[in-house]
Amino acid sequence: MRMPTPDASVLARRAEIVNALRAIVPGEGVIAERDEMRVYETDALTAYRQLPMVVVLPNTTEQVSQVLKYCNEVGIKVVPRGAGTSLSGGALPLADGIILGLGKFNKIVDIDYANRTVTAQPGVTNLGITNAVAHEGFYYAPDPSSQIACTIGGNIAENSGGVHCLKYGLTTNNVLGIEMVLMNGDIIRLGGKHLDSDGYDLLGVMTGSEGLLGVVTEVTVRILRKPETLRALLIGFPSSESGGDCVAAIIAAGIIPGGMEMMDKPAIHAAEEFVHAGYPMDVEALLIVELDGPEAEVHHLIGEVEKIALTCGAVSIRISESEDERMVFWAGRKAAFPAVGRISPDYLCMDGTIPRKQLPLVLTRMAEMSVKHGLRVANVFHAGDGNLHPLILYDANKPGELQAAEDFGADILKLCVEVGGVLTGEHGVGVEKRDLMNHQFTEVDLNQQQRVKCAFDPEALLNPGKVFPQLHRCAELGRMHIHRGQLPFPDLPRF
């Protein structure tokens, strides 16, 4: 895995840089000791590690602005970091760059029930927003499995999804506004409590930008009323293919569940042994379908989903009879990732999205790939929107297994694109999928995306080495370079 070559001239000035940063963020705001920086050497894609040159932990927007302005002036790379739960290496440090940690930005700024919004600093956890408004019957819809730890700022960077995003949308559909700092230190606001903004959709550009365009320092999100009734169905199938057929049939019938998740047999067994949720152990695939809304509507839809499931060959159906039972159904799914860690020393959590109708084909092809690469795979995914999360099981202590796991993962992602899908649904590109981008995009496509990067970060100092297989200099993309306020050839007449 290639990363940008460290700049020796920057490393030679490390002591000077550390002192300058300590002047901006005094006290314990700068971490420069090697052992103390270990905690920042990786994110949740733990196969890759790299110590940063220095870690900076600001606690005000003004400090973030000053840090970025200084780094921009002296040419230092910056990697923004939230809770470090990224599964694509998005927060992987650079040897000649700083980690800009936003963990101290952990306060909720405003709760506005009349406008149904919460404004929070980026270090507030996803679940923290829901907990802050739950007593009034509200919640924040996007709910990644890591919601107890992942931060709202990181959710914006990766456009995170979750169980309930099928019906209520991803992060991009629930963020109304942000405050952000550009690489030159400028502080700007995009959007707000209003539902729509005029002009270019820069808020949409920032959501999912993976720390390449700016640093988010405040977020305004929409909150929703908790539905009157929520019921969940556990539906067991004799094969993953029949479960996939049921997913497509439910959506085709015009039913949009609050959430619709699927697990295959290895994931079912791992989750059940970890959580004891009462999952059926004799099925090959398990579908969790949650229906929400008025009681009469939910009661009707339960009957419709049961009919569809039986038509698709379901061998077991269990319906939650209480809120506690519904939560137990979801507890196993939410704990599936850590549960799989109990049956394998290591695993890669992949993330690709496909058209729903291709689910049976893709599951069959993945089983064939498992044999080809000699590695097991457990499948946990957001079935309703086609967002797959295959967990490739391997042992890093066995020579060649990490490479085999990476090759297996690359084959899965290429398959997603082949059947009309995309490389990532919510985990981002980072370094994990960076070198696969040309399988989905042409060179013209990638160059156009990089022009957006140039508009925000002309010197490519924000999170370099991520997303783009080869990051071109802005001048190479036809952008006119202005140095110290002077255009090239200032003596020539301009029209």
From TrEMBL:
Q: Which InterPro entries match?
A: FAD-bd_oxidored_4_C, FAD-bd_PCMH, FAD-bd_PCMH-like_sf, FAD-bd_PCMH_sub2, FAD-linked_Oxase-like_C, FAD-linked_OxidoTrans_Type4, Oxid_FAD_bind_N, Vanillyl_alc_oxidase_C-sub2
Asked if Oxidoreductase is a keyword of the record, the answer is yes
Record-given protein name: FAD-binding protein
What keywords were assigned to this record? FAD, Flavoprotein, Oxidoreductase
- Which superkingdom does the taxonomy of this entry point to? Bacteria
Q: What residue stretches are annotated with the FAD-binding PCMH-type domain?
A: 48-226
Which cofactors, by name? FAD
Write out the GO MF terms.
FAD binding; oxidoreductase activity
